[in-house]
Specification:
It is built from 22 helices and 10 strands. The chain is α/β, with parallel strands linked by helices and 459 residues long. Among the domains are: 77 residues, 434 Repressor (Amino-terminal Domain), CATH 1.10.260.40; 58 residues, no CATH class. Strands 1, 2, 3, 4, 5, 6, 7, 8, 9 and 10 form a 10-stranded mixed sheet that branches. α11 links the parallel β6 and β7. The longest helix has 22 residues.
Length: 459
């Protein structure tokens, strides 16, 4: 059997360091014939010898050792087993499903598409608001699912990749007329929701609300109302169509979904409110202490070992090399959530709505130095993205300005000849003394940049 990828990697590393077969064999304490077979792509090194090679090639670089081990191990597995990764290399598309693109999965969808675009891998989108993501993965109807996964259910053999720092809590919507009819206050209703007593939950069965109600609380399906889709209108229509005289109906979903349901109810002219305040460091220690917190994830079947290995590697490389772009995605999603909450939140807590929104964003996206310091990267290096996002947010850098001059100002630079363009870039370098001297974050607006360009040229 031939191992062309192993051959390519080893030849590159050996030639770069001008290491002979004999010298390599002595350093690793193996035979010359073994090294010769590896270099020729006829055999593969054992896992122990892969580690030895990593230490030989990168003696004082732990990250380099880890990266080399991963690349060579992946090359060995890919050569030995014909699986999804081989198909990807031949140009096949991954079938990717997302059940709700506007909720917590919005950021992960954009991040995933960036990884795929950089890798040149095609995507076949499969979108359905009522999709059972777990079931679709297990039945092999899709290759990858993006969305809020309620629990790591190992009976379904799922692997969660890029779970990341985002965390969203559970919340509920209730009609105000139902509270009045039952002479019930929000505080008492919170206690009922946390135990499932004397409430009629409205959930999407496979979403986090359904997971919490059906699995965590153990409420029988006969005592639960379900919706067919995750769109806010489905929840709102179901809530408004239920007789509330015997039990209090409440929608159960994540914070973002609940805000959208609240917005839909307000649009329909139906007075309503959130049952809980938005998830924050304070609320998880108080009113929401018994409620779970969920993380958006990119999920695959555990049997898709090649794709998992490839995707993890792709995510790591993207996070290391595209910090500016990924942090922009992060802040744009945060801005969407902030605007949604500020427009529709009628605070049920003692905290003023503006402060409640800020506390929610800080906790759910870990946007404070204290939370970043406490955050520990597990499989993927998210911490640098969090740090950069916080810097941009604190400096109030507009999202439309967080681009390079090459992306945004080309139209204005194109009117100048090459020597003038070089002069502009050199002046920017001198002004900001930055490794990326023409990063637009130094300007309050695009207009300020254009003005600087014209002044630099004396126009």
């Amino acid at each position: 059997m031939a191992f062309p990828q192993v051959k390519a990697i080893l030849c590159e590393e050996l030639d770069r360091r001008e290491l002979s077969i004999e010298a390599t064999a002595r350093s690793l304490n193996v035979s010359k014939s073994a090294v010769a077979a590896w270099r020729a792509g006829q055999k593969t090194p054992s896992s122990a010898n892969v580690k030895k090679l990593a230490r030989l090639f990168y003696p004082e670089d732990l990250k380099g050792q880890t990266d080399f081990e991963f690349r060579l191990t992946l090359a060995v597995k890919t050569s030995l087993k014909k699986g999804p990764l081989t198909s990807l290399e031949l140009g096949d598309k991954l079938r990717v499903a997302t059940a709700h693109p506007d909720g917590g999965s919005q950021f992960h969808e954009r991040f995933f598409r960036l990884v795929m675009a950089i890798a040149g891998i095609g995507i076949e989108p499969i979108r359905s608001v009522s999709m059972d993501l777990r079931g679709s993965l297990v039945r092999e109807e899709v290759d990858i699912a993006l969305g809020l996964m309620g629990t790591t259910d190992r009976t379904l053999a799922l692997k969660f990749v890029a779970e990341g720092p985002i965390r969203l809590g559970i919340n509920c919507c209730v009609l105000k007329k139902a509270l009045v009819h039952h002479h019930l206050g929000i505080q008492e209703l919170r206690g009922r929701v946390a135990t499932g007593k004397d409430v009629l939950p409205i959930v999407m069965k496979h979403d986090v609300g359904g997971v919490y109600v059906l699995r965590t609380l153990g409420i029988p399906e006969s005592r639960v109302l379900t919706v067919d889709g995750l769109d806010a209108k489905s929840y709102a229509d179901r809530l408004m169509g239920v007789d509330y005289r015997d039990q209090i109906p409440v929608t159960v979903a994540d914070d973002v979904r609940s805000l959208r349901i609240l917005a839909e109810l307000q649009l329909k002219g139906e007075p309503s409110t959130l049952v809980f305040s938005l998830t924050s460091a304070e609320s998880v220690q108080g009113e929401k202490r018994d409620l779970p917190v969920f993380s958006p994830a990119i999920s695959l079947r555990r049997s898709s070992t090649d794709v998992i290995a490839w995707l993890v590697d792709g995510c790591i490389r993207t996070l290391n090399c595209e910090i500016e772009t990924v942090s922009d995605f992060y802040l744009e999603v945060i801005k969407t959530y902030e605007d949604l909450a500020r427009r529709h939140l009628a605070s049920s807590s003692e905290t003023p709505p503006e402060q409640e929104v800020e506390n929610w964003i800080r906790y759910s996206f870990r946007l404070s130095q204290e939370l970043i310091d406490l955050y520990e990267d597990k499989e993927l290096p998210w911490k640098a993205v969090l740090t950069r996002a916080l810097q941009k947010r604190e400096n109030n850098v507009p999202g439309t300005v967080r681009k390079t001059i090459g992306d945004v100002a080309c139209a204005h630079l194109s009117q100048f000849k090459e020597p003038q363009r070089r002069k502009i870039l050199e002046l920017l370098r001198q002004r900001f003394n930055s490794p990326i001297p023409y990063d637009l974050e130094h300007f309050a607006s695009l207009q300020e940049l254009i003005q600087f360009v014209r002044q630099s040229l004396g126009k």
